[in-house]
Amino acid sequence: MLQLKKKEFDLFRELVYNRLGISLSDQKVSMMQSRLSKLLTKKRLNSYMELYDYFVHHSGSAVDYELEDAITTNVTSFFREKEQWVYFKEYIKNTLLKKEKKKLRIWSSASSSGEEPYSIAIFLHENIPNIGTWDIKILATDISEEILKKAMLGVYSEKSMEGLSHNIIQKYFTLHKNGTSKEFTVNDSIKKMITFRKFNLVYGNYGMFSNLIDIIFCRNVMIYFDKAVQTQINIHLTSLLQSGGLMFIGHSESIPPSVKNLKLVKSSIYMKQ
Ligand SMILES: C[S@@+](CC[C@H](N)C(=O)[O-])C[C@H]1O[C@@H](n2cnc3c(N)ncnc32)[C@H](O)[C@@H]1O
């Protein structure tokens, strides 16, 4: 593998920060070397500088995606962070079901290939009696158009379904046999609760939200940003939350103390004050 020199790493680091708002620490050199070297092979380029020039001279979402895809990971799964769903269930029972208005707005803000928003929709179906009488909308956004396309399709391999009970699969998915492999498509009753859109948490227009949100999932994405950007995003997200609303973050993440009006109610779960 071609060695990524410090000077080259610094150039890519600056490019990634300016284009995507993603911050790369010094510890990311070997990760960047391995990801970028794969791109070199794929693009049949000979040096990291040629690859750098390619990114500098090409722009647009497809190119940004190549860069983003090399740096971030879309790893996700259904009902990730098990303990959070235990709290969510209690919150539905003790708070949401007691609401006078049967209206709910939820935002999955780095939704990746869709497992997170689909888990939310399924969970609501399982825990809200007479859900048909509710006005529920789930917004699912991600920086990557490619991953959003996959999310919208809602088709998952047998491997992705590991951990989902037989009962849940039967109720909310349709099985297709594709040769010897099996694929599972999310049913329309779940799909129709979700709107997928592209949104960059760093550079996005938070002013486009005209209504406050009851629950925000912003999980396993803050790790890509430096403290200043994390603070700025969290301030935006908090300002969009209803008071008494919840914010779910990843278990290895935290919200900087300078972000006001959020109270930690459970590990990785905050409530707007
Ligand atoms: C590791 S996945 C997390 C998915 C899901 N939230 C979960 O916890 O399972 C991180 C996602 O963040 C997205 N992402 C990275 N930078 C972003 C940004 N600036 N704005 C919005 N999404 C971003 C990536 O495309 C990726 O799909």
Features of this protein?
10 helices; alpha/beta; Rossmann fold; 2 domains; 7-stranded mixed β-sheet; binds S-adenosylmethionine; 10 strands; 3-stranded antiparallel β-sheet; 273 residues; Chemotaxis Receptor Methyltransferase Cher, domain 1; single chain
Strands, count: 10
Let me know the CATH homologous superfamily of the largest domain: Vaccinia Virus protein VP39
Number of contiguous helices: 10
Characterize the biggest β-sheet.
7 strands, mixed
CATH architecture classification name of the largest domain: 3-Layer(aba) Sandwich
Order of strands across the main sheet? 6-2-1-7-8-10-9
- CATH topological fold name of the largest domain: Rossmann fold
The CATH C-level class name of the largest domain: Alpha Beta
**Strand and helix order:** HHHHHEHEHEHEEHEEHEEE
Number of domains: 2
**Radius of gyration over all CA atoms, rounded:** 20 Å
Principal-axis shape: globular
In brief:
This protein is 41% helix and 21% strand. It has ten helices and ten strands.
Give structural notes:
- By secondary structure, the protein is an alpha/beta fold.
- It has two domains: 6-71, Chemotaxis Receptor Methyltransferase Cher, domain 1 (Orthogonal Bundle); 82-272, Rossmann fold (3-Layer(aba) Sandwich).
- The chain contains ten helices and ten strands.
- The chain has helices spanning 6-20, 29-43, 48-57, 61-71, 82-94, 115-127, 145-153, 166-172, 188-191, 227-240, and strands at residues 103-108, 135-142, 155-157, 173-178, 181-186, 194-198, 213-218, 241-249, 262-266, 269-272.
- A seven-stranded mixed beta sheet has the order 6-2-1-7-8-10-9.
- Helix 1 runs parallel beside helix 3.
- The mean pLDDT is 94.
- Bound molecules: S-adenosylmethionine.
- Residues 21, 72-76, 80, 110, 112, 116, 142-144, 147, 200-202, 219-221, 224, 250 line the site of S-adenosylmethionine.
